[in-house]
Each structure stands twice: as structure tokens, then as C-alpha cells.
Records
---
Amino acid sequence: MILVETAITDIETGKAATIIKLSGGYTFQRRLRTMGVREGKIIRVITKHPLNGPLVVEVENRKTTIGRRMAQRIMVEV
Amino acid sequence: MKKIVLMGNPNVGKSVVFSRLTGAQVIASNYPGTTVDFSKGKMRLDGDLVEIVDAPGTYSLESSNKAEEVAVKMLGKADLIVNVIDATNLERNLFLTLELLESKKPVVVALNMWDETKHLGINIDVEKLEQFLKVPVMPMVALTGEGVNELVGRFNSACAPEGMKTKSEEERWVEIGHIIKKVQHVTHRHHTIWDMIADATIKPATGMPIAIITILISFWIVRNIGENLIGYVFEPLFDLYTPFAMSMSNWLGHGFLHDLFIGKLIDGEIEYVESMGLLTTGLFVPFGMVLPYIIAFYLMLAVLEDSGYLPRLATLMDTLFHKLGMHGHGIVPVFLGLGCNVPGALSIRTMETRKQRFISATLMAISVPCMAQIAMIFGILGPHDLVYVLMVFVTLMMIYVLVGLTLNRYVMGESPEIFLEIPPYRMPSAITILKKTWMRIRWFLTEAIPFLFLGVLIVNVLYAIGFLEWLGVLFAPITEGWLGLPKEATAALLVGFLRKDLAIGMLLPLGMTAMQLVIAATILTIYFPCVATFAVLLKELGVRDMIKSMVIMIVTALSVGGAMNFILIGA
């Protein structure tokens, strides 16, 4: 199986992927992690809002709304 | 006195635990960031009085907004920390727990929402967790009170865990991973039909129509409850009161005292809105016109808050609010502000940057009328036609968006994106809702009504000494010339600083046309916040930003008023 690294924003709605890397500032990364978005977790895209709106993602049965540019810093593999 | 501080992530139920411990009533809701400042209470612990502090929620000890800063400050003063954890969300909650353990303070962990773990298929080995954390861990359900006494029982045995080293963030996560592996077991759970319905409320295609319908239904319910309370409860009460007020009027005869207490009789009768006496208008505006809508609004708001719908609405509104320099969380000051601008102004603390706080505070002050004001707008414009009421609200909404777009362009600073946890839907409990509504109504009765009395008093005094007439003449070029309103309307603008509901009531005797009333009601919303809101905004924004904000308010009021005069009346 070939693993492809991509941003969570490129994952289709309804599909899940594994988080492999977070980028961006230190504070931002910590906030992501403390809200459950961490390396190794399975993340599912519930919806992407149009006009570059936020994504709603689900990690371990918990939903979080994340702005589009922030979400681009969550790298996943499928 | 010993100080016990409640700490935990946002929306884990700290405020409910606080109420359980102290018996004090504080507002708790099902969305993150309800508590923006700490509340203090007292409880008895083995005969000694101890102080309990409810800190705002924080994800870690490195704060990212003002509310979190408050939480971190509270930690330094604590003799004992009660770390409230959402048991359904153990892993990420443990990050703060580990940080707290490293602070070398005695800690007790309250594993809240224990009941929900069962149907989510989460199994936590509490004993093992205690061994890992080396501090007492107590499962509990704060909403029902289950486990509260047991938690309190562990307060005295708590001591700072030994051998806790300061760890790096990465080390903490490694340790958490290790703990979770050993103490938590999760049975996989399939998505149910309820999950699909819940998801539909947050997806744009289905969520938007649902949001519009929800808001319309909410307003319809508020209006119906409000009208029925007036028609069947409050008006009949005033009918009973009228003969008493009339005999009072006869007894007082003519003169200043009569004007002060009863006001002017119109065709020999008391007109509750227009007479402007302490015992007539002073009672009728708050109880006969405003209170019924306040009750209705806060009941509805409590249902929306406790169900967990607001964070979903924030998500749906995010794209629009981002264009206005804020993010979706900006709906919280709007919703709270619709009840009363004071809590609305306090809630801007949850916004991360100065730019966001400035914009959301200014926009709320400009175009979010409080329920007291809305009730009065319905009261004076409703009899003409509901279209006029609608005109006021549509104008205000347009101003919110237009001023927001402008401010976003010209206010310097960052506007970070939304980053919001979406709590699960919960069935609101009737008792909690009634309690919360009562707390907010009590606030209205004790804080707002004195101002209203003061307003009536000042109007009478200023009228008697001729100040209001002088002021009217002074500002006539603006009121008459620019806004197309009678010059006596200046008095209403003056009173609006104190209470906007009373100010709108003062427009009634001026014999204005419906269009003029629309303009006056709109300007009264925009031009300046009431003094109570002003005080909070000044504290939250600081003097410099408050002055800027005030300039924006006055400029907006004058330009919108002039434009409306031109378009609606054609001056």
C-alpha cells in the first residue's frame, strides 16, 4: 500500500485519515493537541464549509470546528 | 481562609460542580467559555469555612485568551486544586491535569460526566488512574449531584503528589498515551441515526435552513410567551392597580410631587407609558412591558445554550463573521447581548485578539438592542404595523454587517480563525433552565429597575427646571434638521444613557409618525450603550479603544439617522 501525505483539507467529506504531522506555531500546535488533534489519531472530516469556511472534524467521537487555514497545517495519510 | 480552586478544560461542568459545592448559583451552559471571570463561594469543610473559586476553563496553563489568563492567575493563590475532568474525554483533559500536578499543589481529580461514559462505551479504571496520578480521583455526575459528597470527603486527604518533575510537552503526551493505554478501554460504537441528525445541523446545506428555522421559531416562541404573559398576567395586574394609583393621584393633588410619582394625567386618566411618574411609568415599563419579554427570552436562550446548539450555530456563521474580522464565536456576544448588553460585553473576553474584541464589542454596542429595548420597540411600533418593527431590525442587521466589514479593513491586528470544540447535544433539564432563567431575571430586577427609577426621577427634575427644553433647542439643528425628529426627542436620547427601554417609551407622547419612530428607535440603539454596558466596555477595552468605539457609534448613528431620514421620509 502506498501512503500519501496530504493536508486534512484535501480529504473528502465523510472519509477518515491518520494524523501524521502538525505544523505551524508552537502555541497553535499545543492547542490542537490539547483539543485532541494529535499525531497517530484517526481524524474524520464531517463537513467542509464553502467559501473557504471552516472544517468540522471528528477525533475519538469529539467534534471540533477548525478554520480552513489552520486545518491546512494538519497533515494526514490515507 | 483556605482557598480551593476549580480548574479544568472549558465545558467540563466546573460551574455545575461549583454550584453543588457552595449552593451558590452561577450560570452554566453547554458551550465552552460560559465562565469568563472567576466566581467565589464558600462551603463548610469539617467545620471550617473554606473559599471555593470557579475559574474559567483552560486547555493548558499557557493561556491563549483573557479568560484563560484569569484561570492561570487563580492557580497561584490556591491551597487545593479540584481538577474537573470530562470523563468522556479523558485523554485530552489529562494534559492540564499533568500540568497541575507539576505545580506542586495538592490536587483532587473530579471525573465528571461519569454517567455518559457508560453509553459511549468508555470504561475507565479509576483505581489504576489514581495510582498513575498519585492523587485522589473521584467519579461524579455534577448535574445530579452523584459523587459530590465523596469528592468533598477526599479534600482533606489531598496532598501534592511526590516526585513530579517538570516535563516537556512531548513527555507529557507520551505519559498520557501510557496512562490511557492502561486505564481506559473503549468499545467501538457505530454511528446511530441520532449522530446523523446531529451532523445535519452542522453541515452547511442542511444546517443553514435548520438554523434559520430554529431562530425564527425561537423568536416566535419568545413573542408568544411575552404577549401572553402581558395579556393574561401583567396587564390584569395593572388593571387592579389603576384605582389605587388614581386615588394616589387625587390625594397628591397638583404640583411637583404629583408629577414625580404619578406624572401627567392625559384626559384625566393615567397613561402608563406616557405619564412619566415613578409609580406609573416607572412601574409599568419594567413590569408591564419589559419583564414579560425578558422571561420569555431567557427561557428560550437557556434551552438553546444547554442543548449545545450554539457552537453549531457559531460554526455555520463562521464564514460571515470572519469577513467581519471575528470568527463564529462572535455570535455569543450577539445572543447574550440580545438579552442584556452587559453579559454580552463580558463575553467578548473569550475572543483571542484585541482586534476581535474591539470589533465584537463595538458592533454589539451599535446594533444589538437588548430585550428591554426590543420589547419597547414592539410596544410602540407594533400597534402601527409589524413592518415598521421589521424595518428597525433589518436596518440594524445591515449596519452590523457593513460596519463589521469596514472595521475589519481598518482595524489593525490579527483575526485568528475559529477553533471551537463542539459539545455533544444534551437534553436540557427543566429545573436547570428554570433556575438559570430566574437568576437572570433576578439580575434584571435588582440591577435594571433602580436605573429605571433613577431615569424617571431625572426626567422629572430636568423637566421641572427647564433643562430638557433648553437641551431640545440646543440640539434642534441635529434632531430636527438632520434626523427629521421633533426637538423634544433629544430628551429621550439623554435618558437612553440610563435606560433605553424608558427612552423609547418617551418617544410615544411626541406624536411622531411611524417612520419617525422607526428612525428614533434605530438611532437610540446605535448612538451609545447604556451606562451599565458602558462601564463594562470601558473596563474590557480600555480608555483608548473605548473612545475610538464611541466615535464610531456616534458617527454611525448620525449617518444612519440622516440616511434613513432621507430615504424613508425624503427630507
Note: The longest strand of chain B covers residues 39-45.
---
Amino acid sequence: MKFTANVPGELRYRDLVGASLRQVCRQVESERAGVSLEWRLLSAFNEAFNNVVEHAYAERPGEVEVSLTVDHDRVVLRLVDQGSAFNFEAAGASDAPPEFDAMSEGGMGLFIMRQAMSEVVYERLHNRNVLTMMKRLSECVRASVLPSAPAAEGSRC
Amino acid sequence: MLKHELTEEGAVIVLKVQEDNLDALTVPEARPLVDQLVERGAIKVVFDMTSVKTIDSSGVAIIVSLFKRLRAVGGAVRVSGVNGQPREIFHFLRLDNALPIFATVTDALKGFGA
């Protein structure tokens, strides 16, 4: 299954694409017992789209290409834009959460993406920003359906 | 302006956000409201998120900003009604340790001067 969309890099289009991604997530969840994907995928998508609008296209607007590919054991979400290059490392590509007293939106956004997804890879290819985020569906199984695991509120993925 | 309700419970101001999303789209509308609260000085605020279904880093940043700015002038913020996706984001960012979070407004008001 693959979903693709090209939209202007403006915030008001984020929720339009997000609604479609939500539908894909719900289909994945309906086809795979116990898998819960929606919250994490949408959280990562929102942060990634915000970054494109606020950084890549801060000075010159452009389009964002969004694709979501569903394989049997993983989903891959990709955002491509033609805006300014993104300094991935400087933005806080860390496994540690930002310190509370030094919290900034930029560092938080990237951290949320990395927490929500299994892998986050940024590339600058042919003057385009390509952000590829992968989530293993095996990491999206609700605790309540795992053997020997207690049902836990908030375990939704 | 952000859809919200402001009420006073004794010495505490309760700010109930009445939006589904506290994010990059709605936060610019929330900034004037936060500025107005900070201008009132050393006040106590319960920031209620019961209606908020989705938050992003912009939404988190406005809450953290309110907390820090009021703390700096001798005020205080408690957060209530953090559920679902916002709860997970708070957990990712360890905010469930850094901020005083309560299940409900009623819980947040207890012992807060209301």
C-alpha cells in the first residue's frame, strides 16, 4: 500500500495530509491485530511538516512531497522538499531528551520524531531535503496483546 | 484568539484550552493569552488540556514558556487533563517529571491556594 501527496509547504495543508495518513494508519491497524500506529506516525509527521514550513521554506515557499509506504512489517514515511538545507546534527539529533531549562521547539521536534519512529534519516539529495522515517510494526503492538504483559493505558503507538 | 475559557477559583486562574489541537497552527493564537497571564505577575495558573487531543513541539513550548515565565516572577503553573497523544509526547520529553501534572482540574486545585 502506498499513499502519496504533493501539497504547498504551508501549515494549513498539514492537517489535510495528516487526515489521509490517519486513514492509512487505521487501515493498517484494522488489518493487523494489536498494532497501534496512529499517534506516533502522526506525531512524527506533524513535526517533520512543521520543520519544512518553518525552516526549509522560511524564506521561499514551495511544495512538499509526502509518501507513506506500508510493507508487511514496517511503514516508511518520507517528506521531500526543495527548500533550504537542514542542519540535522545542530538541531539536536540526540537520543537524550532536551534539558527542561534549555528546551527549544526545534530540538524538541526532532527528538519527538526520533522517539516516535524506529529510524529517522535526513539526506540532502540534488538540492532537496529528504527525510525518511521508518517504523517497525513489531514495535507498535499494544502491550495488552503481548504475552505476559499487563494491559496498560497509554500503550497506544 | 485560541478558543479557551478562563475562570478564577479563589486565587487560582484556570485556563481551559478548548481546541482539539495545540500546535503550530493554534499556538500563535495562544501567545497573546500567555503574555496577558504573565503580565498579571505572581499568579497561579492551572493549564487544563482535557480538550486537547493532539499536541506538537510548538504546543509543548508554549506550556513550558508559561511555566518558566510565571516561575520567574514568583507565580506557578500546574497542568491538568493530559491524555492520549499529548500524554505520550509529555512522556517522550520527560515533562511528566519536570512539570506538575494532575489528572483533573479539581486535583490540580487541591493545595494550590484555590
Note: Chain A touches chain B at residues 11-12, 14-15, 39-40, 42-43, 46-47, 50, 53-54, 97-98, 100-101, 103-106, 108-109, 111-112, 115-116, 154, 156 (CB under 8 Å).
